[in-house]
Write a structure and sequence with these properties.
The complex is a heterodimer. Chain A is mostly helical. Helix content of chain A is 75%, strand content 3%. Chain B is of the alpha/beta class. The chains are: A mainly alpha, B alpha/beta.
Chain lengths: 289, 395
């Protein structure tokens, strides 16, 4: 039981971080960012390059992932999503753009970083072993703590800074925020950049545990969408709840159901379908969007 | 003056056309060889090593004047199609090859893709060279598929036997991704292990192919305390994470797989925890490699920046196709002739030292010669590099 709880907390914290960026972008711009997983992968490769290849401290690699993805996110919003949203009121335009962006980033990552799985040296050696009842490598514990600190930091940023308040106002009512003097274009760009940066941050954190490869983008996006659907699209607390719930479902399913084969995700998908049939807006979302 | 200028221009144009035409006449005709395989997603490394090996070899041939088959010297063109590991896409890829008049295709890389393209290949006169293991692809009445590597049911027993004799292994646990290739490889491995007298302590644990955290997956396997943990059909992307999780969970036995792996990926992903990991290597070792193999590695590295050990095996398919066509030029657009030649074909192996031969094998496993003879090299990972554990032959 202790192991299941620890695995659940660890998985939940990393999943929550992945979902945060996706839901932020959706809340601000009503964009389903299919390229979120690719941004996560790119963040992992940037940390890999600076920490794993060039020998800089891990913190520098992580910082570079954040900066790179923040800048990339800002450029993508400024030159791609911003203009498309202004010119087209059809939601599928941004969906297609996001899908195209995912393919484009996949191609760029293949060209720049290659097709192989990449990994970096462990940031902390050793394994915590409590009488074989609870086994957890120290680097996982550290990454879990860092993920929780990042989530708390993000919530505080959104609650107590001017930028955070502006972003929340934008998410609640774009027109009203504009009438109140919020520079919508500027904060849309900042919001998208922050969402991309969160993807880069979690990619940089997890490259130390899971490594990174070109193919991780698509599955990461799918899991992120699942978490957002569980918690409620566009709601920060919903994304965190969705991530933690998915993490615990996965940890419990793998521990309890293993003798029946690989049915954990099958059951999670079935549960999700039933859940959404009764509550399509998710746990914390509003039925009207 | 104006008229003279026009005349001069016309003469210059005519001369240029003549020169171009002469140049065109001097160019070799092109022989297209196809590749249908996975070059994106988690298993991209498998297909990309195929595609790049073919491109490197084709460039090399073209650079040195082309490849002579019968009385004609051809430039080699590689036509590639990413099937994304999706059988439907693999069929589309094989249909594209048929539309382009291509008769020789390398790939697909996985079982379901290789099975899916069989009707298209047989209906359109295409010989294809999969890296997939189902025996039905290569046994009669199937006719057009040729296995491009050593299968797990050929390498697995050799590895288990070695470990029983040298490491005292008595119990074994299997873990596989929940998709067709790894599952069929697991089933083949379980059968082989049982036949050798090993006790199977766990064989029903599977994981999603996109799993990134293997600790929860491996925890129940570790409770069974096997002497040997077999990672059936594990992809290079997942192997380091599985090894790392198993070792961090306290597993001290032997870990092995029957798929090819990459030393750098293991070093980066698992570090010293991967020491002792046994896998099937690319079909070459420093002791076996000829000068031509060394040049191939150098050219590959120059072209793509980094070599992939799997290409030691993947380099062979194109060579076999071309050498067989050279032995029987009418086979260039007649796969029946190609199949007839396969039974007796033999040529010097340019990638190995000594008197090694290129030849088709597979009589023992398939009842007909539908497999490339490449060396079975079993490696053990140690401190960042593969060391050769033993080398064997199939058939």
């Amino acid at each position: 039981m202790e192991q299941i709880l620890a695995n659940g907390i660890y998985l939940g914290s990393q999943y929550a971080m992945i979902a945060l960026g996706l839901t932020l972008i959706f809340a601000l711009m009503n964009v389903l960012n299919f390229a979120h997983g690719q941004m996560y992968v790119l963040g992992g490769f940037v940390t890999y390059t600076f920490y794993g290849q060039m020998g800089f401290p891990f913190v520098v690699g992580l910082l570079m992932s954040c900066v790179t993805l923040f800048v990339l996110g800002a450029l993508i919003e400024k030159f791609l999503f911003g203009p498309v949203i202004k010119r087209s009121s059809r939601e599928e335009s941004t969906m297609l753009l996001a899908a195209g962006l995912a393919f484009f980033l996949d191609a760029v990552i293949l060209l720049v970083f290659g097709e192989k799985q990449r990994g970096v040296p462990k940031i902390v050696d050793g394994v915590f072993n409590w009488d074989f009842r609870l086994i957890m490598p120290y680097d996982r514990i550290l990454i879990c703590v860092l993920a929780i600190i990042s989530i708390v930091g993000f919530i505080l940023f959104m609650q107590y800074t001017k930028t955070g308040r502006a972003l929340r106002a934008l998410a609640q009512d774009r027109t009203a925020a504009q009438l109140m003097g919020v520079n919508v274009d500027r904060y849309s760009m900042i919001g998208f950049a922050l969402g991309a940066m969160l993807a880069g941050l979690v990619g940089g954190l997890l490259v130390t545990i899971t490594g990174i490869n070109l193919g991780m983008g698509g599955p990461t996006s799918i899991k992120a969408f699942m978490m957002v659907m569980i918690g409620g699209a566009g709601v920060i607390s919903g994304a965190i709840a969705g991530g933690i719930i998915l993490g615990f479902l996965e940890a419990i399913g793998l521990a309890v159901l293993y003798q029946y084969g690989d049915i954990t995700y099958l059951l999670i998908f079935v549960s999700l379908m039933i859940f959404l049939a009764f509550r399509p807006q998710g746990l914390m979302g509003k039925p009207w969007g | 003056m104006k008229r003279r200028t026009v005349l001069k221009s016309a003469a210059a144009a005519a001369a240029l056309s003549a020169l171009t035409a002469t140049g065109a006449l001097a160019e070799n005709p092109t022989l297209k060889i196809g590749f249908v395989g996975v070059t994106s997603g988690p298993a991209a490394a498998w297909g990309i090593s195929n595609q790049r090996s073919m491109e490197v070899r084709a460039d090399w041939i073209n650079e040195t004047g082309g490849y002579t088959i019968g009385d004609t010297t051809y430039d080699i063109e590689i036509v590639s199609f990413d099937d994304q590991k999706d059988p439907k896409r693999a069929i589309a890829g094989m249909e594209k090859m048929a539309q382009e008049g291509i008769h020789y295709v390398v790939g697909p890389n996985v079982d379901d893709g290789a099975a899916a393209v069989r009707p298209v290949a047989e209906a359109n006169g295409i010989m294809y060279f999969p890296y997939a293991f189902p025996k039905s692809l290569y046994s009669a009445p199937a006719s057009n598929a040729v296995l491009g590597m050593v299968a797990n049911y050929q390498s697995g027993p050799a590895i288990y036997k070695y470990l029983m004799e040298n490491e005292g292994v008595e119990t074994v646990a299997f873990i596989a991704a929940n998709e067709s290739d790894p599952l069929s490889q697991r089933d083949g491995g379980v059968a082989a292990a049982k036949e050798l007298g090993l006790e199977i302590v766990s064989d029903n644990i599977t994981y999603q192919v996109d799993t990134t955290d293997f600790t929860p997956v491996l925890t129940p396997v570790m409770r069974s305390q096997p002497d040997l943990l077999v990672l059936s059909g594990v992809s290079p992307a997942n192997a380091p994470q599985l090894i790392r999780s198993a070792r961090e969970l306290g597993f001290q036995g032997v870990i092995s797989t029957e798929t090819a792996q990459d030393a750098q990926v293991l070093r980066e992903g698992a570090g010293d925890l991967a020491n002792g990991f046994i896998s099937v290597g690319g079909a070459s070792t420093p002791e076996l490699a000829s000068d031509m193999m060394r040049e191939f590695v150098q050219r590959y590295t120059d072209m793509f920046g980094e070599y992939n050990d799997e290409s030691n095996t993947k380099v062979y398919a194109l060579e076999y196709i071309l050498e067989t066509l050279k032995a029987d030029p009418p086979a260039i657009d007649d796969v029946d002739a190609f199949q007839a030649t396969m039974d007796t074909f033999e040529a010097p192996n340019p990638y190995m030292v000594g008197d090694a031969k290129l030849r088709y094998v597979g009589m023992t496993s398939f009842g007909q010669k539908r497999q490339l003879a490449v060396p079975l090299v079993v490696n053990v990972y140690q401190d960042g590099e593969f060391e050769t554990l033993f080398v064997a032959e199939v058939d």
